[in-house]
Amino acid sequence: MKRMMMIAAMGAVTLLAATQGSALAAGYANPQLLVDTQWLSQHLNDRDLRIIDMRNSAEEYAAGHIPGAIYLSVNQIRLVLRESGFAMPPDYEIEERLGQLGINKETMVVAYDDQGGLNASRLFFSLEYAGHQRAALLNGGIGKWRSEERPLSKIVPQVSRTIYRIDSETQRVASAGWIVANLGRSNVALVDARSPAEFRGEDLRAKRGGHIPGAVNIEWTHNLAGDKTFKSADELSALYERAGVTKDKTVVSYCQTMHRGAVTYFTLRLLGYTDVRGYDRSWSEWGNDPTLPIE
Which residues are catalytic? Predict the structure, then answer.
């Protein structure tokens, strides 16, 4: 018991340290979910830290990555469906993947990519579903790291396999059935992270175009500044509150494949929204199912 209390205390100290700097200054309700390059550079040798490189190409990782980072493809944390799109993998697959990455309950996971958090946010969504309490994104990703001329490495770290048992938070994933049953409720908000053209049905990426009835369109890129860092809490809060997406509601984010929608999911959690869910099948399911209503 004492050891568990000590580990928890040490974890709290690490998380508190992670809030120092730009994330805390930006006013986020959950600043520990976003670490800056300065913090990461000072904690590269932490024993309880696992840095995950989630760029689209393993070749890019091999050419140079943040020291200590290991590579993970986004398709290794989502289930590729035969019919179309992706879904949250079964629990045993998530446990297997986290074990392969050498992650345990006390591990501080920091993920990055070069796309403004697209892939890293998808991992964050999976980790929240798994009940992992210590996960963050690197603000600005490897692009910001490089722009500051911080060191890169070609060394692939050796990782000791762990046994991970998830505490699945199933409410983090919304199904089509759940959404249909809650359409029109004043305490539920749907956020479509796709482009306006997709939202209007002009850019067709399924059998049907349009959006889920009642959804508001806030394209995922609106969460980011020009350098692919996240906008301040004031800017982001105003963006969502103007659209009626408030903290007292259950908020469901989606896109075409819950990729862009994962950035919205992460942003809302960063802002302190508590009941946030991701529709993992997204428009790849909804737009191809004629029994589901559309606007």
Answer: 255
